[in-house]
Protein: ATP-dependent DNA helicase
Organism: Amphiprion ocellaris
Amino acid sequence: MTTSLKQALKTHFGFDSFKSKLQEDVVKAVVRGDRDVFVCMPTGAGKSLCYQLPAVLAEGITLVISPLIALIRDQVDHLRDHNIPACSINSKLPAVERRLILADLGSSSPKLKLLYITPEMVASPSFQPCLTDLCSRSLLSHLAVDEAHCVSQWGHDFRPDYLKLGELRARLPGVPCLALTATAPKNVQEDIIQSLKLRLPLSFITPVFRNNLHYDVIFRELLPNPYVHLHAFIKKALMLDSGSNGQGCGIVYCRTREGCETVAYQLTKLGILSKAYHAGLKAGDRTEVQNEWMQGRVLVIVATISFGMGVDKANVRFVAHWNLAKSLTSYYQESGRAGRDGLPSSCRTYYSAKDKAQINFFICQDVNRRQRKRGSAKESDKAAITDFEAMVSFCEREGCRHATISKFFGDKTPNCAGACDFCSNPKVVQAQLARAAALRTNTLAAPSNTPKGPFGFQADLYEGGKKGYGFERYDEGGEGNEDDGTKRKKEFSDLFKKQMKLRKVKHDNYCVSCCVDADCPLREASSQKIPKLTVKAREHCLQLLQESLYGHYDSLSLAVDIEHEVFKNSKSSNLYKAAVLKKVTANFYVCLQQQRASYLKRKRIGAGQRGSSNPFITAKDLLKSSMLDTESNKEKESGRFFNDSSGDMKAKRERLKETNMDTSSAASSSIKARAKAVSASLDNPTKGGKAMSKKQQKLAEAAKSSRNISQYFTKKQTTEKIQEDADMPEELDATFSHTPSEIAQENISREQHSPASVEAVESSQDVIQAESKTAVIVIPDDNKEKKTAEILNTSEQDTTSITEALHPVNVPPKPVMLKEAADIVVRYLDPFYKQGKFATKELFKSFARYLSHLLAEGRSRGKSQVKAEAKALIKKFFSSVQRCESEADWKHLKRPHSRKTTEKNK
Ligand SMILES: Nc1ncnc2c1ncn2[C@@H]1O[C@H](COP(=O)(O)OP(=O)(O)OP(=O)(O)O)[C@@H](O)[C@H]1O
Ligand SMILES: [Zn+2]
């Protein structure tokens, strides 16, 4: 038998041997046909062949049940490529084809070997006559149920129509049944056997452990810049630094469509071409993205869970979950798409407390909804909750990740041998957990008297809801359903905010204990050369450096080089930080000079101005105080300013004034007096004798908005704003440092929004010399608190003058948002598309998307400016590109100012 099977394997499928002994054993059992068979083998193990080869060899037809039409299509195409007669009857089949198939099935000896149908079709009345006819003529050789876990209510992909397969089974006496799944814990296995009425099945179950997969968990909220972190991980997983191509590809899973778009954009911006895939895209675009990824033209696909089922790609070198999976079963299945070729691959989860709370909310909502509908609780309702809890505990508990998965699936503890972060370096995991715990202590403390739901979860905590988990099944159901989605987001946001009010959250305890992450991009990351300098602080500095190189082609590598140079040459933590800041401000200054140069071209600075003709503070000036103070009283000052960050504004102003007195020697006395008035007015606008004029008030407002420069350095993270605007409770947002490039942009947009800005700009020459203030850059270090690393001697004038230089107009333009930018871009780009200047529509769209993001970045420019920039960019693009053939064509296209900065930096 073995020889003839091997021959058939070669003849029909072109394989020289079975993929494994298990595959061979299953095929033999199915070919014998005397028993039902249950197969639980990991994804990529070659389960399909277990029924396809027997189907070819058997007389008659094998009926295959598969949950998705897309999956069926792939399988049928694959079989037809091997000249194996296979087809599918489904709702989308054109009538002509359907008639042809039914004609073949009705003939005395059908040519068809495999007939694929969905469980819905099995139940459909139109299919019943055909089924009865085949059965009565004994033309059905096997019944194969793929993705059999869908039959179980304990399973993560339960589909009610799968339950009807039990009835089908009863109608096909004597037809052996084969049930296959990749992921089934013990209770799901039992459910499958029972629901499909398998009779004493032969079970082939492989342990879930796959030693080529390396699992790790990273707590996203502890990262200064999660995108940079993800980027570093991908670079390593795909060996992009080694300079060799063809090292495979990867998947990043996100929970929301917006998340996919944002992550894809960020990764592309950091230099790794990535594309989003979700149900919000048109079917054609989805296929195009999938094809590009399959063919290796796009390295990273950033997808919702709608992507992956049935995707047969061997060299997936990593699967990263940007959001927590909804269950450990799903996670095992999704992460298992890595390393199907057996080569080492990485599976990473970016854990976040926000995700945990949100998913918990959606699950509870769904359970409540089901219970309300049914009028009673059911034991199986618990499945979603316990499976999610298993996922959470996979991330939050100390211990081998593989062992956790194996235990969950009822297997013995495997020999991990360093194939997870805990086994390879438990200290790193423990340190991370400790940091997360410290963060959490100050965040969530659920009210202890909150009543528990039927299974222990706090149903009332988030109240009930109308819809499911927040995961449409495979992200299918959401098309054209945005309103509902938005409503739910809002619903969640409101509830969450309400609940969070009960739980006073504070993020002032940013623990910075030292630990080196596997993907840490720093050179000599574990070196203890500089006492008290933590890896966290170094990573933070790296991020500042990278941001200061905004627009540079490979800003990360360059930043890594600079940081390392500074690290090598610094003797103390403070000197290191001061040196980094010097570099940062120098880079930043270059950027400002570029902006100023372009402004000066348009507006000549007139003679007779008061104050300096150079409204820019130099890097030297910026650093002057920090360099002087570095070793002496900085610690004292920095602690003080740090403590201010969320505290009493008045006290802060007093201290700012003190510092100012020491440092603003350049300010003229009259301006000082004016500054004093402004300062006093901040404490009490009506105090201090005369009521302020309207103009003075506005001036004061402007000063107020620019005075607390520290907020630009310690600001809530905004990178994922698009994704989380509506649904992220503020209280859970970790505090991250702000970047220099953002500072300028923030200043601009603040000024644009401020009603005072018109006059502030008009009076800028006065304000320029008005007050000197202290800016604070917060750098996490090892004292378990944010501390100021440097106190820079800068002044309000700087922010004002920067603003003015960047926006030399009297009427502040309304900042352009992404949608508006996209409208502008599409309008200008459309004629080029119509002239056939884009090889494909997808390219046109991608380019439009790229440009829109580019133009909307920072939200700092008015519509007319964005229009002009859009025109200029498009013109520039087509001046060097005849016809756009690939994404590489616009790789180097940058906004004008960033390009200049780049050139200057080179
Ligand atoms: N004997 C074999 N020799 C070599 N390759 C094989 C063999 N059998 C199957 N394969 C290949 O292995 C890959 C995975 O097979 P298949 O898609 O059937 O896996 P699976 O277990 O069904 O995975 P999933 O759970 O993701 O559907 C396919 O590319 C298939 O062609
Ligand atoms: Zn392990």
